[in-house]
Amino acid sequence: MRRMAHPRLRGPEGRDLRAEFEREGYLVLEGFASAEEVAALRRRAGELVEAFEPEAHSVFSTKNQESTSNDYFLESANGIHFFFEEEAHDGAGRLKQAKHLSINKFGHAAHDLDPVFRRFSRSAKVAELLRTLGQERPLPMQSMYIFKQPGIGGEVVPHQDSTFLRTDPPSVIGLWWALEDATKENGCLWALPGSHKAGVARRMYVDQGKVKFDREPQEHGLEGYVPLEVPAGALVVLHGAVLHMSYENRSSQSRHAYSMHVIEGKEGVLWRPDNWLQRSVPPEPLLPSSAEGLGG
Ligand code: FE2
Fold it and tell me: How many CA atoms lie within 13 A of 31 on its CB side?
């Protein structure tokens, strides 16, 4: 069977994506998602938000992670759950702005449960990229649609994704697609090049239904972080151990993004039983490009 390299994976002349990823801990691939794919994901996210009835809800905060210790969060591993921005509600508990401008994100299984997100997440070019980066059996574990709302989009403090999604040995790769232009003004990602080489500093786990950490967060400065300002359609690939963050969005522009985290699913790699994310049905690996038939 003939296997074609996707043209986007070759990048600029001479760019060795795997070597660059291993050296820097991240990659920026502009134009990975087509304008049609971006529009389809944004349209579908709008429909899901429209259908969402905000009764059971939760606030997402990277500063106060106690607030994530609830069933609605833990059960989102197997559903599409909505989390509000920290500043979404007024003192009386009412939304300060419209629902679609108040939600921080939804997660964590749209890549499996929703047909539009599923088709994009499992497209041949995604599987091929992960194999190019060394994964033998790419296994998507979670996805998030992140709104980074105008005016109130919360900051995401410096972290490593492998803190939250642990395999032994570590294997997480984060895929983050800009669905709108991401700029310093509206809260683009920032990454610390090479920081993945120091390994994973801290781990979150669940003990008797409570989210805990094995150590306190490390204090460190923000020297050396580089802004990843990218146009809509760009993919940012993040090594599970690379430090990254984003500032709050005080601009009038939202910064929508779709992210998915994929682990190595081959035999011998263990998904830790005390990870917060536990699927009720086994996750499905991405099929090899030759078996997908979806094209680019
Ligand atoms: Fe992250």
Answer: 7
CA of 21 to the centre of ligand 1 (A): 16
Q: What is the mean pLDDT of residues 241-257?
A: 95
Amino acid at residue number 10: R
Q: Domains along the chain?
A: 15-271 (2.60.120.620)
Q: Does the pLDDT of residue 25 top 60, yes or no?
A: yes
- At 89-124, the pLDDT tens digits run 888 888 888 889 989 999 999 999 999 999 999 999
Give the Cβ contact number of residue 82 at 10 Å: 24
Contact 186, 249 (CB under 8 A): yes
Per-residue pLDDT of 169-215, as tens digits, reads: 999 999 999 999 999 999 999 999 999 999 999 999 999 888 999 99
Cα 43 to ligand 1 centre (Å): 24
DSSP for 258-294 reads EEEEEEE-STT-EEPTTSS---SSPPPPPPPHHHH--
Question: How is residue 85 written in tokens?
Answer: 């921005």
Strand pairing partners for 206? 211
Tell me the C-alpha distance between 141 and 85, whole Å: 23
Beta-carbon neighbour count of residue 9 at 10 Å? 17
Which residues have C-beta within 8 Å of that of residue 270, sequence separation ≥ 6? 167, 168
Least-confidence region, from 149-153, 167-171, 259-263 = 149-153
Alpha carbon of 189 to ligand 1 centroid (Å): 9
